[in-house]
Amino acid sequence: MPVSSEGSAACVPSLKLGSVSLDNPFIVAPMAGLTDWPYRRLCLENGAGMAVTEMASAVALAHHGRKTLELLYSDPAIEKNLSVQIFGKDPAVMAEAARVAASEAGASIVDLNMACPARKVVRSGHGGALLKDIDHCARIVEAAVKAAGVPVTVKTRSGFNPDDGPIIFQLAKNLENAGAAAITLHPRYVTEAFGGQADWSLITGLAQTVSIPVIGSGDLKTPAEAVAALRSSGASGIMIGRASRGQPWFFRQCLQIMQTGLAQPISQEEKFKTALLHARLMEEQIGPKAAFRLRTVLMWYTRELPGAASLRRAICQEQCVEEQLKLLTAAFENIEVAEFIGQSIEDVWRGELPLP
Ligand SMILES: Cc1cc2nc3c(=O)[nH]c(=O)nc-3n(C[C@H](O)[C@H](O)[C@H](O)COP(=O)(O)O)c2cc1C
Question: Does the beta carbon of 117 sit less than 6 angstroms from any atom of ligand 1?
């Protein structure tokens, strides 16, 4: 395959967020309950320019909550730039939480959540509910910027309610004036949650409205789509959320496409080894409790295997990580056997994968 004239590392732009410079603009989106240290680590080792933590309560962080600080664990040798996302509503509390995130959790960026549509969060006036008062949003940013000592970014949505139309343009100008170093836009309304489609034309419009970097987030399913979005939307950075679940190599493939025009396929062996590593990292971090969360995580890596449904049932019944990993190993070993005898996997597994 000929390498295009753009085929050099130089064609991957860096991304500057205030004083912090990222090697590339492909970022792991914050996902509550998912983007813990093992998840971020795997994505970073596969080339992600940065990863954002799951959202942490500003109130808890302002009180130096031990559990919250544990949730934000990171190894600075691997995570060069840690972006800690916080949610809250009171400017003074958000400011103190931003300071603690930087000084105690090692954040090199503090990201403010003005996006979350979860009912519990919105009802208590946090996350997406903040969009009902854009002056208040600016006051929060101003206070956090003064206290954090590191760049402060904001992740937000088009507006609160589609009936009111997009408020993002006025909001973003206010946030820029208040000192935000970048804005991430997931272009849906808060009341839409994940319904409908992300409206990327708002990201293009926003990039033309403010002079700080705009990061686009929403509905990018493949590395090719992510690269095309970066090239065509005017966004300076791209966040990948759901598509990176069980696919940390997504980021490596984005870089490959930027450099050569082509992403290398992922072997079953790599999928297996990565799933195993993910499991071990989770076990290392949270101990035997990992078995519960692995019910979800292992499904990401195996969802395309024939017989995935019965594998899922079997893994969910196991309380112990070792037993879950035996099932995982057997499932991937069966693929190798199928490849070895030269038959297509589809031929061999028309039915369900027999489980030991
Ligand atoms: C399970 C889950 C949890 C999420 N948690 C957060 C969060 O804590 N903070 C936030 O700003 N966005 C959160 N998001 C939104 C994502 O960061 C992202 O903007 C959204 O999923 C759209 O991108 P995608 O289509 O690439 O997933 C979450 C999304 C999912 C699916």
Answer: no
